[in-house]
């Protein structure tokens, strides 16, 4: 009976050993797959990090360009507002006639709502010539 019990214990031990060996093999295969997946993800993260750096660089350059454009055209809104405030102002033809009658650029600015530069241009082009 003892030899039968020993045989049974030996068979059970061998069965447990075989099961343990099978489990170890399965775990090893599973770990290899997980390692491959981890390395793939790590590579993807590195690629995404590089792409994010490129996007950040582009974003920074775009922000600088936007600031430069805002700075360059900051006065445009003010100038548009001035033009809109003029409303139906007398035409440039009337300002030219006034300059021909001898009015200076300051008067043209007040009377016709021209900007200083516009009034000076009209005066230079159409104003009376001063003789010394």
List keywords for this structure.
132 residues, mainly alpha
Gross morphology? rod-shaped
Could you describe the largest sheet, including whether it forms a barrel?
Answer: none
Strand residue percentage: under 5%
Number of strands: 0
Structural class comes to mainly alpha
Rg, rounded, reads: 45 Å
How do the SSEs run, as a string of H and E?
HHHHH
Helix content: over 70%
In terms of quaternary structure, the protein is single chain
Helix segment tally: 5
| Low-pLDDT segments | none
Mean pLDDT across all residues, rounded?
A: 87
Question: What is the first-to-last residue Cα distance?
Answer: 145 Å
Structure description:
With 132 residues, the chain is mainly alpha-helical. It has a domain of 40 residues. It is rod-shaped, with a radius of gyration of 45 Å.
């Amino acid at each position: 009976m003892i030899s039968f019990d020993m045989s049974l214990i030996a068979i059970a031990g061998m069965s447990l050993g075989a099961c343990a060996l099978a489990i170890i093999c399965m775990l090893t295969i599973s770990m290899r797959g997980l390692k491959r997946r981890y390395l793939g993800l790590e590579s993807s993260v590195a690629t995404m990090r590089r792409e994010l750096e490129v996007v950040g660089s582009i974003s920074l350059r775009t922000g600088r360009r936007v600031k430069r454009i805002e700075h360059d055209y900051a006065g445009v809104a003010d100038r548009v507002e001035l033009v809109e405030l003029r409303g139906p102002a007398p035409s440039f033809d009337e300002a030219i006639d006034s300059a021909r009658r001898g009015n200076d650029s300051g008067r043209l600015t007040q009377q016709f709502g021209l900007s200083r530069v516009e009034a000076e241009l009209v005066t230079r082009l159409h104003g009376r010539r001063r003789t010394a």
